[in-house]
Structures are given as C-alpha cells and as structure tokens.
UniProtKB/TrEMBL annotation:
InterPro entries in UniProt: DNA-bd_dom_put_sf, HTH_17, WH-like_DNA-bd_sf
Domain Helix-turn-helix: 18-66
Name this protein carries in UniProt: Helix-turn-helix transcriptional regulator
SUPFAM superfamilies reported in the protein's UniProt record: Putative DNA-binding domain (SSF46955)
Pfam families given in the database record: HTH_17
Length: 72
C-alpha cells in the first residue's frame, strides 16, 4: 500500500495515496471523502491536475486529531 520514493533531498518518501486507498484505510466510502473535502472537514487533500491525492502523514495526523476523550 505505501511505497517509498526518493525525495528531492535524497530521503525516502511515501507515495501519495489515492482516495480509494484512503477510504480503505479509514473504512469509509470514497463518496464520504469527497463530501468531507467539499465541507472542509476531512484529511487535507492535494489536487494534482485533475487527480486528488493524500499524504499519509497528513491522513494519520487528521485521524489523531479526531480522538475524543470520553472521560470528560
């Protein structure tokens, strides 16, 4: 799922994720990702030409930010 690419600085970078990959990772339909993008509430998305791509680190950071403290 996550391939490593060589970055401009020579370091390894993970490949960008497609909406299908992110929907599988999050367990939500692709249509939900599109709705979240439209509403501005989902993980940060990048438009490359006409294609939408996600950075895995940003998806994971968004997931971390969704944590709810049920004890409060």
């Amino acid at each position: 799922m996550q391939k490593l690419k060589s970055g401009a600085d020579g370091g390894a970078r993970r490949a960008l994720a497609t909406p299908v990959e992110v929907s599988e990772y999050l367990g939500v339909p692709v249509a939900t990702l599109y709705q979240w993008r439209h509403r501005g509430i989902g993980p940060k998305v990048h438009k490359l030409g006409r294609h939408l791509r996600y950075r895995w680190a940003e998806v994971e950071a968004w997931v971390d930010g969704q944590a709810v403290d049920l004890a409060a």
